[in-house]
Automatic annotation (TrEMBL):
PANTHER family: AMINOALKYLPHOSPHONATE N-ACETYLTRANSFERASE-RELATED (PTHR43877:SF2), AMINOALKYLPHOSPHONATE N-ACETYLTRANSFERASE-RELATED-RELATED (PTHR43877). InterPro entries: Acyl_CoA_acyltransferase, Bact_Acetyltransf, GNAT_dom, HTH_MarR-typ, WH-like_DNA-bd_sf, WH_DNA-bd_sf. Residues 2-139 form the HTH marR-type domain. This is DNA-binding MarR family transcriptional regulator. One of its GO terms (molecular function) is DNA binding. The keyword Acyltransferase applies. The lineage of its organism: Bacteria, Bacillati, Actinomycetota, Actinomycetes, Micrococcales. It comes from the Bacteria. Gene3D superfamilies: 3.40.630.30, Winged helix-like DNA-binding domain superfamily/Winged helix DNA-binding domain. SUPFAM superfamilies: Acyl-CoA N-acyltransferases (Nat), Winged helix' DNA-binding domain. Pfam families: Acetyltransf_1, MarR_2. It comes from Demequina lutea. Residues 150-294 form the N-acetyltransferase domain.
């Protein structure tokens, strides 16, 4: 690899770690190092298995234990036996921990504003583009997309989160019982497939494809968790779903969506989908799309 590229990237690492305070023992003035605060933020409201948290952050067991001990000593987390595995531990925020996580979010936003305040408008645009590129490129090596049982725990969690999000977003809410029926059997080989995207081993997105013989494939339940948006997950998921359709000989892919899902509409528009008339009577949809597949889609 080019030595200049390596040097530039190492310089980038040094500048970022220094500017964001990652080297300080008193990160954001909260009396603890960055590592402990990051663990508190990353776990969410939990509970989460300690092993999963370690994998997500790439921490060895000893270091993770020390960071959690710091947080437990401050009364910010509780560590308990896993209800599913007596050998495992789960960690969750206490009420004080939830308050502290909110404080960290607020202070982090303020620190970011302070860092960016001196940049010109042109520099802000350039920085936004560059950070998105870097984030996608580095996160992608920790991303996998797998075919799973649509009744699996991860699949059901993703679909539940998707339904809750669109229920809050759509003007008339979302009632699965009124939607065009797509059951688990429709999304199980050979009739279809259901995919879950994992980032650091955690589910962060999903998508299904129904593969009726002799008809266009039908995409359903495309969703990416807010924490993973901007990483290119939706585009990769769409590529995999289209490839599965092409592999079984489908010549076109169809889908329905709602105009409230603006990011999804933009994605479909840039991927060769064209708007078509209503083809299935889905009551929650107000946009229907179709894309013709080429032989190259199966590769």
């Amino acid at each position: 690899m080019d030595a200049r590229l390596i040097g530039t990237f190492r310089q980038f690492q040094r500048v970022v770690t220094s500017e964001v305070g990652a080297l300080q023992d008193d990160f954001l003035g909260r009396g603890r190092p960055y590592g402990a605060s990051r663990v508190l933020w990353e776990m969410g409201d939990g509970p989460v298995e300690v092993a999963d948290l370690r994998e997500r952050l790439g921490l060895d067991a000893g270091y993770a234990s020390r960071l959690l001990s710091v947080l437990e000593g401050e009364g910010l987390v509780s560590i308990d036996p896993s209800p599913d595995d007596a050998r495992a531990k789960v960690v969750s925020r206490t009420e004080a921990g939830r308050d502290e996580a909110a404080t960290l979010d607020r202070l982090s936003d303020g620190a970011a504003v302070d860092l960016l305040a001196h940049l010109s408008e042109a520099e802000l645009v350039e920085l936004d583009r560059a950070t998105r590129v870097v984030t996608r490129a580095l996160a992608r090596r920790h991303l996998t997309i797998e075919i799973v049982d649509p009744d699996s725990r991860d699949a059901r969690w993703c679909v539940g989160e998707f339904f809750a999000e669109i229920d809050a977003l759509f003007d008339t809410g979302y009632d699965p019982s009124k939607a065009v029926a797509v059951g688990a059997a429709d999304l199980t080989p050979p009739h279809g497939a259901f995919l879950v995207a994992y980032l650091h081993g955690q589910p962060v997105g999903c998508g299904g494809v129904k593969l009726p013989e002799g008809e266009p494939a039908f995409l359903k339940r495309m969703w990416v968790a807010p924490s993973a948006r901007g990483l290119g997950v939706a585009g990769l998921m769409l590529d995999r779903l289209e490839a599965l359709a092409a592999e079984v000989g489908a010549t076109a892919v169809t889908l329905d969506t709602n105009s409230k899902l603006t990011a999804a509409g933009r994605l479909y528009g840039t991927r060769g989908y064209v708007e078509v008339p209503d083809f299935n009577g889905e009551p929650h949809a107000d946009r229907w799309y179709r894309k013709e597949l080429s032989a190259a889609s199966a590769r």
